[in-house]
UniProtKB/TrEMBL annotation:
Residues 101-474 form the N,N-dimethylformamidase beta subunit-like C-terminal domain. Pfam families: DMFA2_C. This is N,N-dimethylformamidase beta subunit-like C-terminal domain-containing protein. It comes from Gimesia chilikensis.
């Protein structure tokens, strides 16, 4: 077995010199082409008029319990793309019929949630083939491109949805829709680098029928299945029904409320894919890094990037749950394009008991990652899922300033459906700011912990310990509240909003 297990002292102390040397090299290499800071960019963008019609209105799944909509579906050739670069959009319609593509940037936009950037088409649609299962059940599409879109220079970083719409059905009056999703990235210095959790979106994607990293005949927790980004995102397949998000991965479900809230308040934010974090280059230009929602699957290079960023003074903010759980090697597509195939390579956790148990029960795995607790401040635990209230433990801590919370006060339903716990006891200065008990399936208790610890450069690492954090920040158009394990968050809560303001303002000051 290939073991990649960082020494604790390395993570907490010794990596600083190496990181600084690396930093110096990066800055000297990039100084000639350095992107300019523009802290007012997001504020200016959100002054533009939003769209009143960007959501999916008419969606037809192939069957009552189906995951795909073969009426119209598509995918993009890249997870992320920079201004001036091309991206291909592949679309299939069944039967053959005309369609159009409307490209929206998601954001605040006065509460409307998205802005129409351009309309493409009409195009002559055609049925495109469902690939036969390849090695390790890989489903990799090789569809013809409907259009190559070169990203205009004035399109700011963000998460973009392409709404695919047939122009008519056989009645002559109806139409069918789904999304494609891609991230526009940049390399500008910013206060906040928002990492989308798209590796996890793809890990759970069951397109075309029941093919994800969880659905291999050998078992649902082993390294047996490969999955490709070269296929549509099917209907969200986990804890609740949301066919109106078809094709958008988990963006509208578990991350968009955070981005909507950030942009509403004019924060200087830029966006990236998991795959963009295999180097720390952009993160080292930013003051803080956000992991949001369900951020389970990380390439080991992402982990190494986060360590370098922390040790160089970047604030790491894990507003997420079940994060950094599985080592997820990103591999080339069969035609050689980078970072288009992934699989569950093995657990993070080093010698921690949960990692050892996963190896025993589901291995052998080709990889083992370091103990994520020494990065995040709290770990993945078993059971890792359930529901509960987020309970204040240290009311005098600065993160609670202005909330009025007292020890034992709780925010209902905010813990779920997965979380972190059992923080390492030897991280200098680590504090447990909130803790409590979640119930798996409504009956099995598990302890969770939200933590904060100081970094080496007057920075800090915060871990909210829940996938559901963003649910209590905002409720934008196109979003719906989840529920799981007989528990649910309640939606926007002034205390969660204030805690988040406190943390982010400290991180970017």
């Amino acid at each position: 077995m290939k073991e990649i297990d960082a020494d604790r002292r390395n993570l907490l102390k010794g990596a600083v010199a190496t990181s600084l040397a690396s930093l110096a090299g990066n800055f000297s290499l990039n100084s000639a082409h350095a992107a300019k800071a523009d802290p007012d960019l997001i504020h200016r963008e959100n002054l533009k008029e939003g769209s009143t019609d960007w959501q999916l209105t008419r969606v037809m799944l192939d069957s009552r319990n189906g995951f795909r909509s073969s009426k119209i579906e598509g995918y993009c050739s890249k997870q992320s793309v920079a201004a001036g670069e091309p991206i291909d959009i592949m679309v299939s319609t069944r039967p053959a019929q005309e369609f159009k593509i409307e490209i929206f940037r998601t954001g605040y936009y006065g509460g409307r949630g998205a802005r129409l950037m351009t309309t493409l088409g009409p195009f002559e649609g055609k049925p495109q083939p469902v690939p036969q299962p390849g090695k390790k059940n890989l489903h990799e599409c090789h569809w013809d491109s409907a259009v190559t879109l070169t990203i205009p220079d004035d399109w700011p970083s963000g998460v973009y949805l392409g709404r695919l719409s047939t122009l008519k059905d056989k009645t002559g009056h109806g139409y069918w829709q789904s999304y494609v999703v891609f991230i526009v990235k940049d390399d500008r210095p910013a206060d906040i680098l928002f990492q989308c959790s798209d590796n996890t979106w793809q890990a759970y994607n069951k397109w075309p029928s029941n093919y994800s990293v969880y659905t291999h005949p050998k078992g649902n927790q082993g390294p047996w299945a490969d999955v490709s980004f070269d296929r549509p995102y099917s209907k969200y397949a986990q804890i609740y029904e949301n066919p109106q998000s078809l094709g958008s991965g988990e963006w509208l479900c578990f991350e968009f409320p955070f981005a909507y809230w950030l942009e509403k308040h004019g924060y200087d934010v830029t966006y990236c894919s998991n795959s963009d974090m295999i180097t720390p280059d952009h993160g080292l230009k930013c003051k803080s890094f956000l992991s949001v929602g369900h951020d389970e699957y990380w390439d080991i290079r992402q982990y190494e990037s986060a360590v370098k960023m922390r040790d160089a003074g970047v604030n790491l903010l894990f507003f997420s749950g079940n994060s950094v759980c599985w080592v997820t090697p990103l591999m080339n597509s069969t035609d050689g394009r980078p970072k288009r195939i992934m699989f569950r390579g093995g657990p993070y956790g080093g010698k921690y008991k949960y990692a050892e148990d996963r190896e025993r029960d589901n291995g052998p795995f080709p990889h083992r990652g370091p103990d994520e607790g020494y990065l995040m401040g709290s770990r993945n635990v078993d059971p890792v899922n359930g529901g509960g209230d987020w309970v204040c433990e240290l009311p005098d801590h600065w993160i609670f300033a202005g909330t009025g919370m007292k020890k034992g006060d709780s925010i209902p339903g905010l813990i779920g459906w997965e979380y972190h716990g059992d923080p390492p006891q030897d991280i200098p200065g680590l504090e447990v700011v909130a803790k409590g008990t979640a119930l798996q399936g409504g009956v099995n208790p598990q302890e969770w912990t939200a933590t904060i610890y100081p970094g080496p450069k007057n920075n800090f690492v915060f871990n909210a310990s829940t996938i559901f954090w963003c649910q209590d920040l905002s409720s934008p158009p196109g979003h719906m509240l989840p529920w799981s394990h007989w528990s649910r968050p309640h939606g926007p809560d002034e205390r969660v909003q204030r805690i988040t303001h406190n943390i982010i303002r400290r991180a970017i000051s």
